[in-house]
Design brief:
By secondary structure, this protein is mainly beta. 10% of the residues lie in helices and 30% in strands. 36% of the residues are buried.
């Protein structure tokens, strides 16, 4: 990953980085209820560091499309206006990067991933999801049960403002309970598959699952 982090993300005591507490209408990610919200090996930052594997794509909202395909009954394709018209959710969750920083108390807004996939009609043989970005076809993979958690969403707003290009806007995937590389930036498509298909970082040695609470950073060997 490349990074433009300007500060050492040392632990800083005090309130969460974003809202002090979850708004009443927000889905609260279960990990925010842990007595210790910091996974092992992590350090807290109040800033939101910028990390990416290559370039930041320039995306014209007029040309932006999001596709849901693969093992679904009804493949979907959304323009920006159509995506904005979908039912909205807000999720209050922490955010953990494999490079050992965590940002606590984020308020994400967007479209429920579970609801979106349900509207496409998940076929019985679907077991995995591949998320593809606009950055030269970058991919990451998820088990379908991970994607269907209520706190997973396609986010276009963070802490009350639109997600900027550096952080994956206009839309990025957010899967709060896994390391942040699973939360694909610049989202272009979601493909349901029967077989697992490791993505860019997974093929380079990152753990195929990516659970921060058991430090699944890299595959052994």
């Amino acid at each position: 990953m490349t990074s433009s982090v300007q500060d050492d993300p040392k632990y800083q005591p005090g309130p969460p980085s974003g809202p002090e507490a979850a708004p009443a209408d927000a889905i609260v990610s279960p990990d925010t209820r842990r007595p210790n919200r910091m996974p092992p090996g992590q350090a807290r930052t109040r800033k939101w560091p910028v990390l990416h594997w290559a370039h930041v794509p320039t995306i014209d909202l007029g040309a932006w499309r999001l596709e849901v395909n693969g093992l679904v009954e009804r493949p979907l394709r959304f323009t920006w206006a159509e995506f904005q018209a979908l039912p909205r959710v807000r999720v209050f969750a922490d955010f953990h990067c494999v490079t050992r920083w965590s940002r606590l108390g984020n308020l994400w807004e967007g479209v429920s991933l579970e609801a979106l996939l349900a509207s496409a009609g998940i076929r019985p043989d679907a077991r995995h999801l591949v998320a593809t970005g606009y950055d030269s076809g970058w991919t990451t993979n998820l088990r379908l049960d991970e994607a269907l958690r209520p706190d997973a969403l396609l986010a276009d707003r963070h802490d009350g403002t639109p997600i900027d290009e550096d952080h994956g806007g206009p839309v990025r995937l957010i899967v709060p309970h896994l390391y942040a590389w699973k939360s694909a930036k610049w989202l272009k498509s979601l493909t349901l598959t029967a077989e697992d298909a490791p993505g860019y970082w997974e093929q380079l040695g990152y753990h195929n699952h990516g659970d921060p609470w058991t430090e699944e950073r890299y595959e052994e060997g």
